[in-house]
Design goal:
Elements lengths: L4 E7 L11 E6 L4 E6 L3 H9 L8 E3 L2 E3 L1 H14 L3 E5 L5 H14 L2 E4 L6 H10 L6 H7 L2 E5 L3 H4 L1 H8 L15 E6 L11 E4 L5 H12 L8 H5 L3 H13 L2 E6 L1 H4 L4 H15 L4 E6 L6 H12 L5 E2 L6 E2 L6 H7 L4 E5 L3 H4 L2 H9 L2 E5 L4 H4 L3 E4 L10 E3 L5 E3 L11 H16 L11 H5 L1
Parallel strand pairs: 6-7, 6-15, 8-9, 8-11, 9-10, 11-12, 15-16, 16-17
Antiparallel strand pairs: 1-2, 2-3, 4-5, 4-17, 7-13, 13-14, 18-19
Bound molecules: iron/sulfur cluster.
C-alpha cells in the first residue's frame, strides 16, 4: 500500500443520528480526501466524499479574507457589545465544542438554542412532563420483536436504522432478524419505508394525537367509539388488533420522527406516544425513542441539559438559565426582531428558517462556523472555515439513543476545529468584558438602574 493511502477502521459517520461507528475508510492523504467508505449507506458515502479539504480562506470578515485570529477579534467585539445575542446550531459539532458554546452564552448573558428547537423540541418538552421508557439501539436490536415506526421515513433519512438495529438486524433474542420481528409503520402517506412494514396504518393528517389517545384507551380496557375511523382513517378493529399485538409482544419499541412532532399537537403528540409506551409496561416491556436527524443533535441536548438543566431554548440574560420555547427559541427571537447579534455554529438557518427570521438575520451581525460556505456564511459579518467533526476532528458525539461515541478522525485539516475557534472567542470576550460577567446592556433594567 502506498504511503499516501491510509485505512481507518472503526471510524464514525456523523451524517445522521445513527452515528454508525463501523466505517472502514480509505484515505488519500496526498489529496486529503476519503476515496472509499465501506459499510456506509448512500447518505454516508456522500458525506465522506463531499468532505475533503477545500481551498478556502480561514475566515471572511465583512467579505474580506482574514486569518482565524482576525476573525476571532471581530467576533469577540460583536459578542461583547451585543445587548441580546443568540447562539444557535450545535447539532453538527462535537460535545467539546458545544460545551464551550454554553460557556459563551452564560458569560455574555445571551440566548442559547440548538436545532432541536425545529425538530424534536416538542419531544424534549413532553419528556420533561412524563419521562421516557428508554433503551439503547443495541437493546432494540437484540430484543425487540415488535417495532412501530411513527411519523418517519428511515429508509431515506436513516438507512441503516433498519439494517443495523431495528428491522433486519439479527440479535441475541432475534436470531432470525426480520423473521423474528413484526414491523408496523404509521404515517400520513406511503413512503419508501412503507414496503418494509408488515402493517401500515395511514392516518389522516393532523390526527396522530387522536389515534394515540385511542390506543391508550384500548390498552387500559376503555371503550372507543367506532367513529374514530371517520376522524382518523383507522378503523376500531385495526386499532384493537394493534393493541392486542402490543400487549402480546415480548419487547416492543416505538420509534418516532418529526412527522409526529412537527405536526398539529406537537408536544401533546410526543407526550401521548411516550405515555402509551409507559402504559404498555403494565403488560410487557415497551420503549420509545425519537429518531434524531443530525449527527450530534442528541449530544447538543445532553450537553445543554447537563450544563443548564434544559435541553434547548435557554436564556441567560438574568444571569441564570431560563427555558421557554416560543420565547427563547431562535426562530421566534429572529422573527420578532429581538436579538441584535447571532453566533451560528455548524448550521445553516439562512437556508431553512422562515423568511421573517432570515430577514432579521440579514439585518444583524452574524458570526458563523462551518466547514462549507453556506447561505448563513454568505450573509455573515464573520465566517470561519472550520474542520469537519468526525473526519478531521476527534471528540465525542451522542448517538440518537444517548450512547456517547468517541470519534476517530481520518486525516488532519489545516483549519481549526469549532472547539478551538469557540475557545479563542470565549477567551477574548472574557478579556473584553473585564470583570463584568454580562455586557451592561444585558443586565435587567432594575439592576442597571440600581
Ligand atoms: S445511517 Fe446515518 S450514520 Fe449510518 S452510514 Fe448512513 S448516514 Fe451515516
Amino acid at each position: 500500500m502506498s504511503d499516501n493511502v491510509r485505512i481507518v477502521p472503526d471510524a464514525t459517520c456523523t451524517f445522521c443520528g445513527c452515528v454508525c461507528d463501523d466505517m472502514i475508510l480509505t484515505v488519500d492523504l496526498e489529496h486529503k480526501r476519503i476515496t472509499k467508505s465501506e459499510n456506509a449507506c448512500v447518505l454516508g458515502k456522500a458525506w465522506f466524499k463531499e468532505h475533503g479539504v477545500e481551498d478556502r480562506p480561514f475566515a471572511l470578515v465583512e467579505g474580506r479574507e482574514a486569518t482565524t485570529a482576525e476573525g476571532v477579534e471581530a467576533a469577540a467585539q460583536i459578542l461583547a457589545n451585543a445587548r441580546f445575542p443568540v447562539i444557535y446550531g450545535l447539532s453538527d459539532t462535537t460535545c467539546e465544542a458545544q460545551r464551550v458554546a454554553v460557556a459563551i452564552a452564560d458569560m455574555i448573558g445571551g440566548n442559547l438554542d440548538t436545532t432541536t428547537s425545529v425538530c424534536h423540541g416538542p419531544t424534549g418538552i413532553a419528556f420533561q412532563g412524563g419521562g421516557e421508557s428508554t433503551a439503547s439501539l443495541g437493546e432494540i436490536k437484540n430484543r425487540a420483536d415488535l417495532v412501530i415506526f411513527w411519523g418517519g421515513n428511515p429508509a431515506e433519512a436513516h438507512p441503516r436504522l433498519f439494517t443495523r438495529y431495528a428491522v433486519t438486524a439479527k440479535g441475541m433474542y432475534t436470531p432470525n432478524g426480520r423473521k423474528d420481528r413484526t414491523i408496523v409503520l404509521v404515517d400520513v402517506r406511503r413512503t419508501p419505508s412503507t414496503p418494509v412494514a408488515d402493517i401500515f396504518l395511514q392516518v389522516k393528517p393532523r390526527t396522530d394525537f387522536e389515534v394515540l389517545w385511542a390506543l391508550r384507551a384500548l390498552v387500559k380496557g376503555r371503550k372507543v367509539d367506532p367513529s374514530i375511523e371517520q376522524r382518523t382513517g383507522i378503523s376500531l378493529a385495526v386499532l384493537e388488533d394493534l393493541v392486542a399485538r402490543m400487549k402480546r409482544c415480548r419487547y416492543g419499541a416505538l420509534l418516532f420522527g418529526m412527522g409526529l412532532t412537527m405536526n398539529r399537537g406537537r408536544h401533546f403528540n410526543a407526550g401521548a406516544l411516550l405515555a402509551l409506551a409507559t402504559d404498555l409496561n403494565e403488560f410487557t416491556h415497551f420503549v420509545a425513542k425519537p429518531v434524531r436527524g443530525h449527527g450530534n443533535v442528541t449530544g447538543a441536548d445532553n450537553v445543554v441539559s447537563w450544563q443548564t438543566g434544559f435541553p434547548f431554548g435557554v436564556n441567560f440574560s438574568r444571569g441564570y438559565p431560563r427555558f421557554n420555547p416560543g420565547e427563547f427559541t431562535t426562530v421566534d427571537l429572529l422573527a420578532r426582531g429581538d436579538v441584535d447579534a447571532a453566533l451560528i455554529i455548524a448550521s445553516d438557518p439562512a437556508s431553512n428558517f422562515p423568511q421573517a427570521a432570515i430577514e432579521h438575520l440579514k439585518r444583524i451581525p452574524v458570526i458563523s462556523l462551518d466547514p462549507k460556505l453556506t447561505h448563513t456564511g454568505q450573509i455573515s459579518r464573520v465566517a470561519f472555515t472550520t474542520a469537519t467533526y468526525g473526519i478531521n476532528v476527534p471528540g465525542t458525539v451522542y448517538r440518537m439513543d444517548d450512547v456517547p461515541i468517541t470519534l476517530r478522525p481520518a486525516f488532519d485539516s489545516p483549519y481549526p476545529s469549532d472547539e478551538q475557534v469557540l475557545s479563542a472567542i470565549r477567551d477574548r470576550v472574557r478579556e473584553l468584558l473585564g470583570g463584568n460577567r454580562l455586557p451592561v446592556g444585558a443586565l435587567p433594567a432594575a439592576a442597571a438602574v440600581s
